[in-house]
């Protein structure tokens, strides 16, 4: 029992150590970490030195009390590892050396945190800069240390191997060393091994295999990066020997992985950019070598660090993404996962909208000018909408339309689009006579509301004297803040609505979506979670039904219990360090992340056991609207890595930056009939459809039964498997 | 130059009336088409007289009304008032547009069910609900709007016998500053009866109180009355929440919105005085929104307006039977549709038009129906062109109440047709025949034969 507790307490350490190894290739894959760990032990003392440095760093971070999730990710460990290995390779093993390794491990944590602070301000990673700085420091200092002998062990690899594994290992090593392969392959594997200071083919092969298992895209990128550099060297005729090249060749591999798929979402563009970036890295390496050689310092991964950082920094200042290079905003430690969830996020939401902004009116309105509109929504003010009400014949007025009051939208309540504080009010401008415009006071009567930092909404052309709020007032979402009018640059009554980053009248607009809009456009009706309704679309907001909110608007701290044939499932609603909310299943340690606003629930991510009920629930409640019209259908798509078996997407991974042939679609259907105020349960049915090249592979069906108390039961059916869970609500 | 039609000379006092702001009264414009369909051809095809309903107008009016409310309030529901016009085709148009059903008798309740309206979407109003009716309503989980204490006791009794919990609301009558005060339906607000009824319901613990209902009158020309009524109902809802922690789910403001018909004795025509849907909507919704009800708890707003939704869509076309001159020299025109079909002519000055253009000359005319009864007067006095026997006429805005309150008296009730969106006519109620009546009658054996 005690042992169990002890193991549990030490579990974090194991994870952190293995991740520290994997992190060198940006991975958090346990198997990959352990493989790399073994690779370092090709030289026993090097291996020991590496693990000592990592352990020192981990304990330092833990004792000082850093964020545990970051420690577990190996965030503070991988630089220590590199320093440890480096020192182990360069110097003769001795007690002094191990003391130095210990110190370097501690120092690497300090330096990592410092650089995290410095670079973090610019939103940049610190990469392996701490390692380079520390290693250079030791290299410079070591010349003064008389007791430290330079190691020659690197030369006598066989001796080391013999002590480690006897004759069979030597034979295996020899066999690998003499594998027939083209010269460039050889260099490639040596380069991979050189990341860990291992100049052997075996190390390179194991690292390559680990890389392939960890990520298909990273593996491809490593080849792409290596060969671009290799060719560039040949074309330029830069003199290089294989050994010398492999000691710097990994720079191109790491740069390719970092910029081709890890910090930038892998895509056709991210691959193409490498054609330019890798040669730049080559030039930088060659010139840095010239600078550092007189100091007897190796360049190591310095060029990779510099190229990656300047590229990422430069990309931040673009005003649009016409080059198709999207930097990641949620690192999942694998290019595939980043790609699938990024693509999925773009399909589902398009834009991030941390604070939901809703439509500022009741009922159905028509967009009469959208973003980049033909009349006035241009330049700095291009991200705005004009709304009017149209009747069945498409007219915006009754009678002849000679008076403001003839217009359907005139005098209608305008609402606060979200909770906020009123910043500015203009309420005294006369409404125009139809057909005339007031260009002096262009925006007319206006309310500006602050919803968050750098997030303001502006409602303009309101009716004179109709605004009941004043600056400083707190307004709730849906509170009346004025009436639609015809003031300012408005020839006929309409509402101008825009989101801006500053509180002034006349501020330029920002591109920010409207949440949960029912859009009718070109004969199609769709509930859009993040909407930028185009011109002539008819938009409205659904009203949330209390029972749907009770069922699906999870509140942090709440517990949800389900009873199945197999027993009871208990889920807690939790919130993590980054304020992401998730359902947590204690039994299977699974997490289903979601985001919920006033009108909708979206599940965004799942981590854990796919056999758990929570996973099925995550699939089934992937997108739920709390309001609905009879027969409303919701559609959505899943990131395929969350649905398909990893074996099934192995091939897809290689192609993923260019083409996705696997698809997983979600559909939810609301009942066609209105239930009035009866207590009849609400039955929601839906399906999840997996397809490959457009052909359906598998369809699962699910059903929710909801009553006033919330979810009553949940049923999931896949093939012959049928699971029914009954909610034990209080 | 073609030969002018002969018009019999008469001597008439100049009686142009006072000029209105538009000048002297104009002649009546003929109305020859409905939705682009010739009335004359319809009369030839389906006989005279003939009720004509326009589906296009019904849908358009409904959407206009819905838009007026839904663009001002988050949860709006219309409920079609069956008694206004319960021809199945008409009801189903409203149901297609999303309206629920509002019924005031067991018969109407069954009619709604037969039309396919789910029981829980039927609102059961009115003072006449038998025990059987109530049972049926409870079983169907319909919304029962309780009118008086005797009914409340019935419902409480039934709730003890039955499995289903009755869903109830009370009808409240209140002083909105208009005359006459409609205090014959429901529980009075000012004297505290409404509060007593609510206490009774809450303490019974067997009824689900889901809403509050009022219906302040009929043919209301004042929107302010609605504002007052909505404010008072909202205050009742707030009291309920404070006292019992109970949230009601809807407020039913009833109906009574005026149509554009002109009331007898009104100085201005209805087209000028009737408030628009927007006016009513503004009064009601602004009262609810500015009440003390919390924004999250705003109840659904239910409207049961009937007249204003259907009146404009109905027409009665017919034929002149004869003309004559009365003893005082006034002209009389006898038409083939009387008060048996136009019940509403007792309170409206109906807008009657010739179908084909006739002479420019108008004369003070009394328009009589065909019945052999003195009361059968459609318009006692109007400036009307000189129609002859066989000429066609059409009465506008007869969609509300006439097709439910009409009488089978002396003659049969005529065909009703509906012009669909493309203008294609559909018979939605056949003309009655002798068999219609005889099939209902039983003659005892000893009365079967007679010798004359």
Task: Give the key terms.
heterodimer; A: about 725 residues; alpha+beta; Ammonium transporter fold; Glucose Permease (Domain IIA); 3 domains; ten-stranded antiparallel sheet; about 40% helix; B: about 450 residues; alpha/beta; Lyase, Ornithine Decarboxylase, Chain A, domain 1; TIM Barrel; 2 domains; nine-stranded mixed sheet; eight-stranded parallel barrel; 13 helices; globular
Tell me briefly what this model is:
Chain A has 730 residues and is α+β, with helices and mostly antiparallel strands.
Query: What class would the helix/strand composition of chain B place it in?
Result: alpha/beta
User: Mind telling me which CATH architecture of the largest domain in chain B this is?
Assistant: Alpha-Beta Barrel
Given this structure, which CATH class of the largest domain in chain B is correct?
Alpha Beta
CA-based gyration radius of chain A: 31 Å
Write down how many β-strands of chain B occur, each being a DSSP E stretch of 2 or more residues.
20
Helix content of chain B: 25-40%
GO molecular function (chain B): diaminopimelate decarboxylase activity
Organism (chain B): Algoriphagus kandeliae
Pfam family, one (chain B): Orn_DAP_Arg_deC
Protein name (chain B): Diaminopimelate decarboxylase
Report on this structure.
The complex is a heterodimer of chains A (730) and B (452). Chain A is an alpha+beta fold. Chain A contains 18 helices and 24 strands. Chain A has a twelve-stranded antiparallel β-sheet with strand order 18-17-16-15-14-13-24-23-22-21-20-19. Chain A has a ten-stranded antiparallel β-sheet with strand order 7-4-5-6-9-2-1-12-10-11, with no helix packed on it. Chain A has a two-stranded antiparallel sheet with strand order 3-8. Chain A is globular. The two termini of chain A are 36 Å apart. The model of chain A has no long low-confidence stretch (mean pLDDT 88). Chain B has two domains: 33-52 and 312-431, Lyase, Ornithine Decarboxylase, Chain A, domain 1 (Beta Barrel); 126-303, Alanine racemase (TIM Barrel, Alpha-Beta Barrel), CATH 3.20.20. In chain B, the strands form three sheets. In chain B, strands 3, 13, 14, 15, 16, 17, 18, 19 and 20 form a nine-stranded mixed β-sheet that branches. Chain B has an eight-stranded parallel β-barrel with strand order 4-5-6-7-8-10-11-12, surrounded by seven helices. In chain B, α5 (131-139) crosses α6 (149-161). In chain B, 46% of the residues are buried. The model of chain B has no long low-confidence stretch (mean pLDDT 91). At the A-B interface, loops of A face α2 and α10 of B.
């Amino acid at each position: 029992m005690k042992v169990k507790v002890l193991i549990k307490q030490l579990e974090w350490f194991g994870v952190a150590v293995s991740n520290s190894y994997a992190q060198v290739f940006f991975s958090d894959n346990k198997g990959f970490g352990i493989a790399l760990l073994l690779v370092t032990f090709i030289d026993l003392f090097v291996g020991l030195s590496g693990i000592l440095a990592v352990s020192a760093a981990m304990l330092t971070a833990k004792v000082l009390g850093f964020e545990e999730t970051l420690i577990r990710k190996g965030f503070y460990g991988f630089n220590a590892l590199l320093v440890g290995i480096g020192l182990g390779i360069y110097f003769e093993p001795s007690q002094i050396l191990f003391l130095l390794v210990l110190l370097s491990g501690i120092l690497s944590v300090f330096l990592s945190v410092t650089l995290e602070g410095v670079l973090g301000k610019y939103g940049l990673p610190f990469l392996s800069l701490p390692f380079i700085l520390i290693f250079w420091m030791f290299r410079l200092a070591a010349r003064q240390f008389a007791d430290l002998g330079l190691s020659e062990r690197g030369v006598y690899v066989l001796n080391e191997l013999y002590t480690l594994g006897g004759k069979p290992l030597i034979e295996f090593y020899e066999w690998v060393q003499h594998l027939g392969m083209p010269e460039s392959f050889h260099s490639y594997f040596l380069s991979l091994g050189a990341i860990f200071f291992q100049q052997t083919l075996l190390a390179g092969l194991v690292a390559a295999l680990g890389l392939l298992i960890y990520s298909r895209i990273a593996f491809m990128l490593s080849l792409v990066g290596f060969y671009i550099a290799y060719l560039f060297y040949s074309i330029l005729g830069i003199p290089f020997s294989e050994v010398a090249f492999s000691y710097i060749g990994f720079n191109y591999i790491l740069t390719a992985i970092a910029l081709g798929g890890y910090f930038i979402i892998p895509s056709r563009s991210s691959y193409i950019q490498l054609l330019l970036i890798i040669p730049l890295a080559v030039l930088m390496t060659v010139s840095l070598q010239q600078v550092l050689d007189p100091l007897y310092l190796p360049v190591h991964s310095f060029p990779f660090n510099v190229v990656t950082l300047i590229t990422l920094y430069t990309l931040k200042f673009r005003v649009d993404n016409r080059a198709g290079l999207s930097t990641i905003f949620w690192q999942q430690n694998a290019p595939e996962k980043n790609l699938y969830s990024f693509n999925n996020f773009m399909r589902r939401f398009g834009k991030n909208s941390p604070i939901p902004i809703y439509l500022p009116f009741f009922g159905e309105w028509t967009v009469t000018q959208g973003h980049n509109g033909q009349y006035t929504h241009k330049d700095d003010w291009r991200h705005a909408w004009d709304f009017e009400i149209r009747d069945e014949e498409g007219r915006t007025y009754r009678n002849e339309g000679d008076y403001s009051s003839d217009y359907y939208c005139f005098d209608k309540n305008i609402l606060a689009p979200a909770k906020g504080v009123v910043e500015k009010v203009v309420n005294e401008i006369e409404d125009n006579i139809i057909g005339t415009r007031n260009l002096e006071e262009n925006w007319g009567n206006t309310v500006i509301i602050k919803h968050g930092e750098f997030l303001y909404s502006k409602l303009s052309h309101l009716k004179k004297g109709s605004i009941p709020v004043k600056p400083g007032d707190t307004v709730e979402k849906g509170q009346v803040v004025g009436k639609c009018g015809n003031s300012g640059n408005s020839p006929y009554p309409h509402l101008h609505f825009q989101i801006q980053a500053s509180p002034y009248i006349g501020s330029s607009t920002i591109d920010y979506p409207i949440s949960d809009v029912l859009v009718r456009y070109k004969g199609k009706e769709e509930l859009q979670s993040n909407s930028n309704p185009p011109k002539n679309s008819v938009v409205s907001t659904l009203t949330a039904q209390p029972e749907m909110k009770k069922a699906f608007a999870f509140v942090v701290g709440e517990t949800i219990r389900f009873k199945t044939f197999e027993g009871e499932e208990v889920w807690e609603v939790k919130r993590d360090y980054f304020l992401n909310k998730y359902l947590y299943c204690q039994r299977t340690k699974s997490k289903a992340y979601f985001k919920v606003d006033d009108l909708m629930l979206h599940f965004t991510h799942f981590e854990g056991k796919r056999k758990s009920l929570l996973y099925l629930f995550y699939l089934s409640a992937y997108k739920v609207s709390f309001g609905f019209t009879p027969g409303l259908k919701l559609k959505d798509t899943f990131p395929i890595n969350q649905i398909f078996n990893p074996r099934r997407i192995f091939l897809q991974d290689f192609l993923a930056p260019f083409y996705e042939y696997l698809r997983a679609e979600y559909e939810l259907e609301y009942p066609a009939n209105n239930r009035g105020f009866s207590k009849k349960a609400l039955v929601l049915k839906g399906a999840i459809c997996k397809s490959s090249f457009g052909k359906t592979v598998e369809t699962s069906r699910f059903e929710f039964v909801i009553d006033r108390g919330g979810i009553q039961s949940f049923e999931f059916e896949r093939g012959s498997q049928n699971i029914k869970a009954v909610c034990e609500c209080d | 130059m073609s030969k002018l039609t002969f018009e019999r000379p008469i001597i008439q006092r100049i009686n142009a009336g006072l000029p209105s702001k538009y000048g002297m009264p104009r002649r009546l414009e003929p109305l020859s088409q409905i939705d682009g369909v010739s009335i004359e051809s319809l009369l030839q095809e389906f006989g005279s007289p003939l009720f004509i309903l326009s589906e296009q107008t019904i849908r358009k009016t409904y959407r206009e009304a819905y838009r007026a409310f839904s663009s001002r309030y988050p949860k709006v529901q219309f409920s079609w008032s069956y008694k206004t016009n319960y021809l199945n085709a008409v009801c189903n148009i409203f149901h297609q547009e999303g309206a629920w059903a509002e019924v005031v008798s067991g018969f109407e309740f069954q009619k709604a069910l037969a039309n396919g309206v789910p029981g829980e979407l039927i609102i059961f109003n009115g003072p006449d609900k038998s025990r059987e009716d109530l049972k049926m309503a409870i079983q169907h989980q319909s919304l029962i709007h309780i009118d008086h204490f005797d009914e409340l006791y019935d419902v409480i009794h039934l709730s003890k016998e039955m499995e289903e919990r009755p869903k109830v609301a009370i009808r409240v009558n209140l002083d909105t500053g208009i005359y006459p005060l409609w205090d014959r339906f429901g529980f009075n607000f000012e004297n505290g009866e409404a509060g007593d009824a609510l206490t009774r319901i809450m303490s019974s613990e067997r009824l689900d109180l889901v809403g509050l209902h009022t219906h302040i009158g009929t043919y209301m020309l004042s929107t302010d009355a609605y504002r007052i009524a909505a404010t008072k109902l909202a205050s009742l809802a707030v009291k309920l929440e404070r006292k019992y922690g109970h949230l009601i789910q809807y407020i039913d403001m009833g109906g009574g919105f005026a149509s554009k018909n002109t009331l007898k004795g009104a100085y201005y025509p209805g087209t000028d005085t009737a408030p628009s849907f927007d006016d009513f909507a503004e009064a009601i919704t602004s009262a609810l929104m500015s009440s003390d009800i919390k924004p999250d708890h705003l109840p659904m707003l239910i409207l049961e307006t009937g007249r204003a939704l259907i009146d404009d869509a109905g027409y009665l076309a017919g034929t002149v039977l004869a003309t004559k001159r009365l003893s005082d020299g006034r002209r009389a025109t006898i038409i083939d549709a009387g008060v048996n079909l136009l019940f509403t002519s007792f309170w409206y000055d109906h807008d009657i038009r010739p179908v084909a253009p006739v002479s420019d000359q108008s004369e003070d005319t009394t328009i009589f129906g065909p019945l052999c009864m003195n009361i059968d007067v459609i318009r006692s006095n109007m400036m009307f062109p000189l129609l002859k026997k066989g000429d066609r006429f059409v009465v506008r805005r007869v969609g509300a109440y006439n097709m439910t309150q009409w009488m089978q008296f002396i003659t049969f009730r005529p065909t009703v047709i509906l012009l669909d969106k493309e203008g294609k006519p559909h018979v939605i109620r056949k003309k009655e025949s002798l068999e219609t009546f005889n099939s209902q009658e039983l003659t005892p054996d000893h009365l079967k034969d007679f010798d004359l």
